[in-house]
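Task card 7
Instruction: Convert sequence to structure tokens.
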Amino acid sequence: MEPSDCESCTHVHDVAMEELQEQPSHKKVDIDRAIDLMRFAFREGMAFLDNGSGRSFEERMIVDMSDFMVNMLFQGPGVPQRDGPRRMRAITPTLDKDIAHAFVKETRKGVAKELQGDLFGIVLDVCSSPSTFKKYMVLFVRYVNVKGEVVERLLGIIPEPDVYDSGIKVPVDLMLSEAGLSLANVRGQGYGLARYGDEIFTQLKKSVAEASASAYCMHPNAFKLQSTLASASQDRVETYQLFQAVDLLSDLIQGSPQFREKLCSLIKERGLNLDSDIKKQGETCWGSYYEALVKLAACLDPVCDALIFMAEHASRTNEKHMALKVQWAITDDFPFGLLLMRDVLGATNELSLALDRNDLDAKNCMALLQESKKQLLIMTDEGWPSFLKEVNLLCSESDMPMPDLGENFKPRIRLSDEESRTITNLEHYHIDYFIKVINKQLEELDKRFSKESLELVCLASCLNPRNSFQAFDKDKLIEFAQFYPTEFSDTGIGALDLQLQVFIKDVRSDARFHEISALSDLSVKMVETGKNVMYPLVYLLLKLALILPGTAATAKTASSAMKFIDSTMVKEPCNQWISDCLLLYLERDIFESVTNDAVVASLAG
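Output:
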């Protein structure tokens, strides 16, 4: 080897050693301090809750931190310190996400600890964000806690789940396994279908049925009927735009005093008989969707004029844009969709109101269900001529053109050659729109109220405490218990019979039970008075009734959590970080009980 070569090798070796020495070692952090900081962030929902400051998550972590957390950050005096040496951990790019997921795993275990090995139901939904069209799966568990309260806890959110083959089953099995919950203890299943067909849950249902034959299916939104029926109709572009316009109009009325004042003055000028409280709370500012459609149909002309006024004279740019969006949605076929959905939701309105009552009267609801179906069928068979006259009248009153039903239909959206066909406006509006929308509503009613679920609800309602247990029927309650052979053997049925006889005499003579009117109130009162111990089989029967997904009057329901999740997913990316942060924020009372030691152990695992 030449000397020059040796010198070259030595130079390369020296450079390599210098680079190695200059390379920084892995930085470490006190893991307990990091966990405490992240705990604060999760509790406050800082990853997704905007406080209006416009600051980033990292900035708010510092600026909005409590004095205690700031003292901890800077090791201020007087801050309680953990005994023993500091636990240091290497800082990695995913440390915050790892801590979040460790908290989630431990929170699931906390849910299982609260459940104490008892029976439970599962509520599962697959949703998609309207802004990004990304889908996410949400799993709740439903049970009766030690206080007798009916609780629905969020167990997990899975972004972008595989909705085919066994794609739904795998993450559900994982979440239940992490929590330490067994499918054998499932006694109720609820699946919100969103935009997907029932077939995506086939493998999961089969797995649950194999583990528990008494895990009966009920639609989780059966008792939130009107909003689900409105959502079900939105698979059509026309009805989707209708409800988008109603929601935007509701936001405009609530958020713009200028628009609200103009609309009220126009309504008053034209002598319309409409209640003055146009800011009523509900699904929209006009109450329920049905109420909103009734009021919008009654004052469509002044609404259109108020929108024109806002488009020209709005003092705020965002209000002008909202007015323009609503105007864009009010097309020539808007009156048709408005009156159609008003009449369709009107046919089920009494049923919706009855289902929303805390003191649910199951027999009355079943009668109203049959009446709702009857009205929808009459609309299909006989309602077209009278409906068409109403549309013509509304178009005339609102100065909007009535489509010529003899002309060829011209779709607003360009269709492919395979989809496009020449039809008249009459065929489109009558067959493709009127008939199909009504049939869709009938399908949704059948989906939400299966024969088995109706029977279970009716039998369980015989424990309803309203009017001093007026609906009590021992024989039907025995029949309800026979749906659960694992809990009630032949010997158990005999013991239940005797307990029911004594129970009904006891509670009817006990003044503490005279004012309650719902099954969920009954379970709480039984625990408070110790009658859950005196009549354990009656209490077990009551818990089985309350575990069924969708039954009304829960203390902590999934519906409010779902609204929060949906609204967050519209604004935030649909990923595991946001999903974990949402769970920790929504289940704060359990999450707060998770210790640092448990998180560290989970991270190490």
